[in-house]
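Hi, here's the filled form for the chain we discussed.

Project: internal
Contact: R.S.
Residues: 500
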Amino acid sequence: MFGPVTQSSAILGTLEIDRRAGVPLQTQLYRGLREAILQGRLASGLRLPATRVLARELDVARNTVVAVFEQLVDEGYLVARIGAGTVVASIRPETLLHARPAPSRAATTAPPRLSRRGLALASIRRASPGATSGRAFQVGLPALDAFPTETWARLLARRARTPTRSVLGYDYASGHPGLRGAIAAYLGAARGVSCRPEQVIVVAGAQAGLDLACRLLLDPGDAAWIEEPGYLGARGALLAASARLVPVPVDPDGIDVACGAARAPDARLVYTSPSHQLPTGATMSLPRRMALLAWAERAQAWVLEDDYDSEYRYGGRPIAAMQGIDGAGRVIYVGTFSKTMFAALRVGYLVVPPALVEPFGVAMRHTGHSAPVVIQAALGDFIADGHYTAHVRRMRVLYEGRQARLVRAARRHLGGLAKVAPADAGMHLVAALPGGSDDVDVTARAAAAGVVVRPLSTHYLGRPERTGLLLGYAGTPEREIDRGVEALAAVLRASKGSRA
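And the returned structure, exactly as it came back:
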């Protein structure tokens, strides 16, 4: 039952209408009434003024008040009673407690409670801010201006217009058959990977693949080698699996297997990027690859081979994948289309040993790591029709030219400030800074100057042995490369002066 109906004019003292706020009057009135009801300033059973009266008092159109009343009635805050007007609905005090407006950012003092894994994941922060495409020197961004968007749009539209029943259902947990077959054929020809289509597991990006593999293959507390310095995404996937991270140094021949075996002989998994190590750019030598595979077989450990940008090698043919020489079935190969096509595609893949095909396929139905199947189908067409190989070939030429331009610009403007050497592969270079430089501080200064770089020191799990800046050139147009280097030189000079 409603209480006594009195003081109908009390509502006027609870509302504030600001015609200069840039917020529609109807929105202001709705929010004001709703908040007053939730906070109890308008008591249950209170009869509101007639819409005509309230409109006159607030100097707003009657239709505005009518629309607000109708919305609040629909949402249950008000009740329209024939012959008795509109009254505040009966809302119990415990309901009000759960329906209070969200506190402001300033009012929130206690941080949310996270799990130990959550705290570890949340602590992995990239020092470089997000950036729009085309700005120097975002790492890992391909040349979006050179992607064949019309061809891709045509293939995607074709698949979207005539989808099969299976594409619209749950039939392809491990990936669309056309895409799995296309990936297997491509990897065999281009990367020396030995696999059948059923060994290909399509996931929503390489990060999803790393996360899935770590969760399936590791128990909490299991030791896992990780390259030092190494990829932050791999660190996150291992922490999410509650693994015990063991940093293993990287030298010009790749991850130091002897050091890893000494530090954690009981490790269950090794993460490595042998074809083009991130961030140093080292290529793992054949003796080191054989040593790692031999150790993994003896230790019954798994090797996660991240082959994120191996298509871009400018001195000879791409180095064959380590998976192709794995005779013991210990390597899980990780690939992505984010570096060859565009990041928003969010399609990656794993190539798992035959013994892992069934468990990975079952897990895919429960983890939410699947990529949209219509996109998978179109991507399979893109590869099978030859567009993918042709695009990669064009980008290899384009990126080689952009790297050369970056090196020339660095020699002109960064002498004595940073050392940038050319590389045989990849999409980024490392600008080595003088000893004592704070690359995190330089990154922040560069961002203020409109240049996006990434500090090398953040890729170390332990104490950084050296500092530097990662400069992505693949997605940076030529003129922006020159402008970015000049701006970075000014930042480095200012930073050097502040240390003097």
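Let me know if anything looks off before we file it.
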